[in-house]
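pinned: reference chain
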Amino acid sequence: MPPSVTFDGRPLTVEDITALSRREREPALSTAADFRARIDRGQAFIAKLLEEDGVIYGVTTGFGDSVTTRVPAELVPHLGNHLFRYHGVGLGEPLDEQQVRAVLGVRLQSLSQGFSGVSYALLEQLQRLLVHDVLPVIPREGSVGASGDLTPLSYVAAVLCGERDVFFRGQRRSTQSVFAELKLTPHTLRPKEGLAIMNGTAVMTALGCLAFERAQHLSRLTARLTAMAVLGLQGNAHHFDATLFSVKPHPGQQQVAAWLRDDLQSDAPPRNEQRLQDRYSIRCAPHVIGVLEDALPFFRQLLERELNSANDNPIIDGEAERVLHGGHFYGGHVALAMDTLKNTVANLADLLDRQLALLVDTRFSHGLPPNLSGSQGARASINHGLKALQIGASAWTAEALKLTMPASVFSRSTECHNQDKVSMGTIAARDALRVIELTEQVAAAMLVAVRQAVALREREGVLKRSALSAAVRQTMEQLEAVVAFVDEDRALEPELLALLERIRQRVL
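pinned: its structure tokens
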């Protein structure tokens, strides 16, 4: 059995959520008596307030601008259901299954902090969805990131209560039919629980965790691709010298230079290089990739603090018996992380696109054939190698760069000007994932190109496989298992798709 991710109020990491999202780890809800008591204490305090005719936002009042509307006691039990029902206005393609699992895990972690006034039974129902892989169909569009992810999370609340649709075993089905098949009982919302499920940052944080992991992998992959581009271009490996990088001590930049030195085995004294200085997309690669490397710890800090927070409203302090009205649903920190992450990742796409342009152009490739075509003799005239691949990479790069406008600056006033300043964190996270997807496509194109360029240098006798570093040899072997040498023109789409799958599985 894989190790579990335990929900007991203690901190989780980005990796806990991403492993849960891939079903590499199972969710375990703590059964410890002190944890259960801490969770149920908040719900007991709410019940006490209701008996005393206390006023609680979202429990005895309407929502948002309707806060001045008092809800009669006999209607309080119905309020949470109305909240998720009228928020059923999401549009767009649904989140994929991995993303939905991450959302469920993030929301369960937030509610497990014990400051949301929910029952232990609600946490158990969330865990059941994960254990049985019953995944709410969540449209990806409709959240402005404050009051949290209300619309997308309404689909989670509805499914917990047996309504709307789910993905189950590869099919979209009604929640009611799946619950009946699994003998699951719909949850009956208690006062405050509907608001607690929906009024938080779970969607943006979940998408942010997935984006972080993929960006982290792209950083290392881009360094490997750069090393192989240096080999193909017969570039100057000593642009990555340790002493050189000691005088500009950004740790991430230094790390990238070290990766390149290892891949290029460039600790030996300088040789007579073809060029004293390579073009910027080669020479400055550590400075480009290093920005992302140096930013990743900051992104992690923002995401994990959000992940491990109680971020709904109001906060229920059952221990001190206080209701604290605030704005923890505001996703500004996630918005900043995602707006910045997509910028740094798009710069990787731009870097690789420039490197690919050098490899296919005989004016800059130092003797490589036009468009890296492997065709020789009379047939060389009708073969065009990677010409279209470079065009495609340029298109994907342009689209990635276009999406780098920060979403957080597009705050809109909504809900009768109650929600008059919002974070746009979920849109930022969705944009970040799209930029990552496009950058992975550019990386796949570059994998084809460097595989071809290194093979061409080997054919020339300029490079010997035995002289390559172990890491580069391994990458070449992995690439050769997927991408055949391009001598005659062929459609490369199947190989690109296979490479994309390996990138996303972090095999390449």
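why pinned: The two ends are 26 Å apart (CA to CA). The mean pLDDT is 94.
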